[in-house]
Amino acid sequence: MTATAPHAVRVLIADDQPLVRGGFRMLVDSQPDLAVVGEADDGAAAVDFVRTHAGSALAPDVVLMDVRMPGMNGIDATRSVLHLDPRVRVIVLTTFDLDEYALEGIHAGASGFLLKDARPEELLDAIRTVARGDAVIAPSTTRRLLSHLVAGAAGADAVRDDPAVTGVAQAGAPRADVSRVDALRSDVPRTDPARNGAAGAAGAAGSVPEVPHTCPRDPWRDPRLRTLTAREREVFELIGNGLSNGEIMAELFLSEPTVKTHVSHILAKLGARDRVQAVVIAYETGVVLPG
After folding, report:
1. Which residue, 35, 110, 170, 266, shows the most beta carbons closer than 10 Å to its own?
2. Fold of 218-285
3. CATH number of 9-136
4. Chain-centroid distance, C-alpha 78
5. What is the pTM of this model?
6. Domain with CATH 1.10.10.10 in the chain
7. Residue range(s) in the chain whose domain bears CATH number 3.40.50.2300
8. pLDDT tens-digit profile of 157-189?
9. What is the SS3 assignment for 126-177?
């Protein structure tokens, strides 16, 4: 293995396809400020590498983690790697635009995710970004994936947990049409045959249950957001929309130290590890709507 430059970002590549690993290695090693320190063909090997080389010159700063690998998958591996060394940054790599595992990777502690067909400069920028302690949230693919994944998860939960909807489905009648936006709003009333008398009986008989129309819930009433100040709410909404610190500075006419202070306070109040988890919370609470 060639010597690593003293200040180069050390990268571990975890992917079960040798050609993919080789391509990533060539790309990363072509940069003077980046260096591949190892490869792993599954999640368990990635965890073993981090454990074996902890504290040494081969300890990775960033792991490029494929989601779908035999044995231990990339989600479980991400969780284990960060348990071993919380300073390691993980970028989850996924092939599909709507990979259900991508959001799980973020919840597991990954600092971002990219599609494998992203442009080479996007991958290199992502490595540098997470190595600085920030998170990969700016690319449109990331925002699109978060939008679909959070909305899809909320919609599935709404259907699964709704007695009226599941009851009608079992009876063979069409399900009620619950929009993705409504699925994100936890206060949208649900029809329950056991509680709603004649309407409930009609639902049990096979008609489509009526979902009463209500005004949208105020996302700022979510317990996770109640302690944010007015200015922190402004900054949080811009973070949720993928803006960088520089873009937030320009949008709100604030200085860089002020923006950094607000971001730090927001992450602490949300209990978020980094900006990606803050973005997830922005989607989950409805501060940023999917679409």
Report:
1. 110
2. Arc Repressor Mutant, subunit A (1.10.10)
3. 3.40.50.2300
4. 13
5. 0.64
6. 218-285
7. 9-136
8. 554 444 443 333 333 333 333 333 333 333 333
9. HHHHHHCCCCECCCHHHHHHHHHHHHHHHHHHHHHHCHHHHHHHHHCCCCCC
